[in-house]
Amino acid sequence: MNETIASAAMRPYSGKGSKASVVALSMLFLVVLLSLAVRLPFFTSPLVGEEGGHAMLVLGEETVGQRTANGFPQIMIGRIGGSDLFVSFERNIVPYIFLDRVVRSAGWSSWIGADSVERISLASRMPFLTLFVIGGSVLLAAAFRSARTLSGVAMAVPFVIAGYILTTPLAVGASLQPQIDGSVGVLLVGITAWVIVLRSEKGWRIFVTSVLAGLVSGLGKHEWAVALVAATAVVWGIAMLQHRLAPGRQDAQAMRRMNGTAAGLVLGVALGVALCLMVSVQEYLYGIFLMERMTRGDKSILLQFLRNLPFTYPLWIMVAGAGLMLLVLFARRLLVERFVECVLAVWGMGIATGYLWSAWPGDGFPRYFMPALLLVGLSVLLGFSRALPALPRAVAPLLILCATAGMAVNVLSAYDKSERGVSITSYPGKSLSAFSQHLDTVITRAQTEGIIVVDSSSVGIYNKNIEFMSEALSWEGAVDYVRRFYPGLEGKLVATFE
Predict the structure, then answer these.
(1) Which of 64, 81, 396, 457 could link 154 by a cystine bridge, Cβ 3.0 to 4.6 Å?
(2) Are residue 56 and residue 38 in the same domain, yes or no?
(3) Into how many domains does the chain fold?
(4) CA–CA separation, 154 vs 59, rounded Å?
């Protein structure tokens, strides 16, 4: 009988005992150290674009929800007459409530301080980085567990793959950006993956843990939940169809695990969505309408793909690796045994494909792809780690060489951007020193001339006394808003944004 990847993974190829654990822990430490090092220069970067509006969710002691008409957190769009102005995020409100009430309660501003631009920036970015670390640690946990089943040079493969993913420009920027995708998004999909990858495979626990995982993913953005249900249905359907059309020896226990996992994930997502609807039907529907608007217009998918490519090319490399893994598993009739890995891969591919198809430009930084990178990267890490014992031994050194080279490119890219002092998040490449000077000038003008500046929401974060309207509204939008709610003051508006 030909040896399958699954059976090969069970043969005595593993490094066992304390020595293997020490080696694995050493490599884990190096990956963590490198991942931290590439981010350190950007901890205090000034808030750019909409980052200020999201930073409001974690700064100070008073929640944003206490200051809005409907009691839910909203994005800050300005300040007039000493009152902060807010509008709906037009998304499922649960992630924003989590930031506003739970994450804020850690008191970031209190123990970091808010007496300078640098401290405010640090207090704004650290909560989002913390959420990224918690969710992204599933990569490190999976790498550690996989490494302990390998020996020799192959032990390094899971760690270099994890290190490459965590140091990519997309991961570095998304982890430090005050936005949902790289923080709550990574947290939710990371916890979902944690639960179903590192769980016990015994009896009823399979179904229960799958329900829990699905529920967690259902609390996030609409597209994440939809993509998980679709991925589960597609992989389960193909596996069952293959089993029916080409019957063969199939592990009955593996079939029960697959069915329990699939049913649990779908039920869990339904429960998560139901909870979100219980919190606010209106806000949840706003998110559906926003998704529909994102696909409107005559946008070029190819052009936006090329614009995003400097950030997303690692994702597409991982997608290619995951696609190869799926083909191999299909050909070897292992979809049932490796159902979870397949679902993670297709889930990530679905999220990536959806955003690719929408051709949404955003603020130039494609943070929307970060959850997809985590999921597809995790499936590749697990897949290649389990496949190594059945592959030629030259494959492991080749993978290590490629991933190490990729990490070197990532580190050099981060160093270059740090030296040039440019943004790695919103409006990537924007000079941060020039932007800091711009903020000083705008704040001084607003204070001395008594005008309402139309600029980045960051001006309202760094100075609590000036009047402003966010540039995210556009000049026309700001004029219309002031004319509608503060008639007679539209003449004080001055466009200062660059």
Answers:
(1) 396
(2) no
(3) 3
(4) 45
- What are the CA-CA distances from residue 358 to residues 290, 350, 417 (Å)? 12, 12, 28
Which structural domain, as residue segments, surrounds residue 76?
Answer: 51-109
Q: Output the CA angle 316-402-369, nearest 5 degrees.
A: 25
Residue 464: C-alpha distances to residues 47, 114, 175, 459 (Å): 15, 11, 26, 8
Q: Does 426 reside within a domain?
A: no
Give yes or no: residues 293 and 146 share one domain: yes
Hey, what are 476's tokens?
Answer: 């026309």
**Inter-residue contact 368 to 221 (CB < 8 Å):** no
The 10s digit of each residue's pLDDT in 193-211 is 999 887 766 667 889 999 9
Reported as a single tens digit per residue, the pLDDT across 69-90 is: 899 999 999 999 989 999 999 8
Q: Is residue 114 part of a domain?
A: no
Angle, helices 157-166/17-37, rounded to nearest 10 degrees: 20
Q: Cα–Cα distance between 346 and 340 in angstroms, integer?
A: 10
Distance CA 137, CA 133 (A): 6
Pair 398, 8: CB distance under 8 Å: no
State whether 21 and 145 are in the same domain: yes
Q: Is residue 119 part of a domain?
A: no
Task: Specify whether 382 is located in the same domain as 304.
Answer: yes
From 492, 496, 491, 389, select the one nearest 441 (Cα to Cα). 496
Task: Name the residue with higher pLDDT: 412 or 290.
Answer: 412
Residues 316, 438 within the same domain: no
Name, in order, each residue with C-beta under 8 angstroms of 282's C-beta and a sequence gap of 6 or more. none
Please check whether residues 329 and 411 belong to one and the same domain: yes
Token output for 129? 């980085």
**Residues 356, 357, 361: CA angle, nearest 5 degrees:** 60
Alpha-carbon distance 284 to 279, whole Å?
9
Do 381 and 439 fall within a single domain?
no
Cα-based angle 490, 493, 497 (whole degrees, multiple of 5): 145
